[in-house]
Design brief:
The protein contains 9 helices and 7 strands. By secondary structure, it is of the alpha/beta class. The chain has a 7-stranded mixed sheet, sandwiched between helices. The structure holds zinc ion.
């Protein structure tokens, strides 16, 4: 599907599982999309592999892993998420894990919540973090086993380039023609969820700038269709 004939709505799914590396990925990255799925009547859940304890941002006192896990649970209520599962993999080490081991958690969580779709970060990890790529790889392996749709959140190349120029970040963008779905979103629930991640968001100029550049548009890619039902919008 080219950018000329991209879809403008999310597909109808019964349940979507967001597969993330760190608490805040579900809000900073996927928040508006997760909320939009809920608005379409889909159940949603989050599987997060780490507690995010290695973050360089630490705007709230206390053990960062415990703080961030609690922040994720609070954020989920704003996004309409029914279930949050935070695993204990060390932050920053997912790329060294066997993909089969990570995928087994995704298979279990997807079955538990009745998900027929997975929502992940785009190949390249969007921010360039290797943990993000490992989470995406695990999701695709699980989807192959269960025959699930895998949708990836992506940002346009122009926005990635602008952020990298302004902040020296390593965002990996995607040509807009590679977007299968271009979605108009309401960010109010996402912004409320972001505020729950106080340890990561109060001084996060990169996040603020990215949302400003993205406006109310999200780009999604189909990384894996469901073979049993095809891909349709
Ligand atoms: Zn992350």
């Amino acid at each position: 599907m080219s950018g000329q004939d991209h879809a403008v709505h999310l597909p109808d799914v019964a349940g979507v599982l967001a597969v993330c590396a760190h608490p805040d990925d579900e809000s900073f990255g996927l928040g508006a999309i997760l909320h939009a799925f809920g608005e379409r009547g889909a159940k949603s859940a989050v599987l997060c592999f780490t507690h995010g304890e290695a973050s360089t941002l630490h705007d709230v006192a206390g053990d960062l892993g415990a703080v961030r896990g609690a922040e994720l649970t609070a954020a989920g209520t704003h996004l309409g998420v029914q279930h949050v599962d935070v695993l204990d993999y060390p932050d920053g080490t997912l790329a060294a894990e066997r993909v089969e081991g990570l995928a087994a958690h995704v298979v279990g969580a997807a079955r538990d919540v009745g998900a027929d779709a997975l929502l992940v970060f785009d190949h390249g990890g969007v921010t360039g973090h290797p943990d993000h790529q490992a989470a995406t790889d695990a999701a695709i392996a699980a989807a192959d086993e269960l025959d699930l749709l895998v949708l990836a959140w992506a940002i346009p190349t122009a926005i990635a380039d602008a952020l990298n120029a302004e902040f020296g970040t390593a965002f990996v963008g995607r040509d807009p023609d590679a977007c299968d779905i271009v979605l108009d979103v309401d960010r109010s629930a996402q912004l409320a969820a972001i505020r729950c991640h106080a340890s990561q968001s109060s001084t996060n100029a990169v996040l603020r700038r990215r949302l400003e550049l993205q406006r109310n548009t999200e780009c999604l890619r189909v990384l894996r269709p469901r073979s049993a039902h095809g891909w349709s919008t």
